[in-house]
Amino acid sequence: MTQTSHNVDHAEIRKFEELASRWWDPHSEFKALHDINPLRLDYIDQAARLQGRDVLDVGCGGGILAEAMALRGARVMGIDMGEMPLRIAELHTLESGVEVTYRLVPVETLAAERPASFDVVTCMEMLEHVPDPAAVVAACATLVRPGGYVFFSTLNRNPKSYLMAIVGAEYILGMLPKGTHDYARFIRPAELAAWVRDAGMQVTDLTGMTYNPLNQEYRLEKRRLDVNYLATCRLDADT
Q1: Is the dihedral of CA 190, 5, 199, 40 positive or negative?
Q2: Which of this chain's residues are annotated to bind S-adenosyl-L-methionine (predicted)?
Q3: Phi-psi region of 214 (alpha: psi -120 to 50; beta: other; left: phi over 0)
Q4: Cβ atoms 6, 48 nearer than 8 A
């Protein structure tokens, strides 16, 4: 049986621990993260204007997005429950000179410690890897300041996403290690929106991310939510 504590699936953590040393290799198992990072970064920056913002990256892994946001002028903290990815992230800041603070701490614990401490909270490609994604959404809402932004990205749950994200990406194209995703944990946009509302926020945008295997390019498309998608959420300024 998979052990869980602090809303962490330890089997999921081990998957990424084993690959941690290759996190910053753009041709490794993390190639997809490197390829989509400019799209994620621009999506966040266009909505929230990262310059001068206090930003929290939840489930930061080796720090690809966290460093990119810091380079856009944000003051960034990255948190994760994988010790090795965080070590890699910290080592990379020594090489790059980019200033990011990293902590090994559950998001729910940080929410209790530091409510309303961040202008922007990002939680990308993480919700589908935890036992209780609604609790993560609620913690992110607690951490953001009134009027602030929370960004999520995850995978829709339907036959097409199973074929594209698991059969295609993991078994046919080899873009991801086999077993990276569990289809049962994919999240429909309506499910995410319900958790966001329960946490006191509103979804202000949903945008899909598509992949063309012929030219190996990713794109953001407003109406294509059937596989990967991003969500912009805001906490009401009067909260």
Answers
A1: negative
A2: 40, 59, 80, 124
A3: alpha
A4: no
For 168, phi then psi, to 5°, come to -70, -55
Please tell me whether 22 is known to bind a ligand.
no
Q: Which residue has the tokens 């992230």?
A: 89
Residue 216 in tokens = 């190996």
Which amino acid type is present at position 8?
V
pLDDT of residue 236: 85
| Cα separation values, 42 from 49, 128, 169, 234, Å | 9, 23, 24, 17
Q: Is 124 annotated as a binding residue?
A: yes
Q: Is 126 annotated as a binding residue?
A: no
Say how far apart CA 167 and CA 199 lie, in whole Å: 34
- Look at residue 3 and tell me whether its pLDDT is greater than 50: no
pTM exceeds 0.85 for this model? yes
At residue 230, φ and ψ (nearest 5 deg) are -115, 150
201 assigned ligand-binding residue: no
Kindly report the backbone phi and psi dihedral angles of residue 115, in degrees, each rounded to the nearest multiple of 5, phi listed first: -65, 150
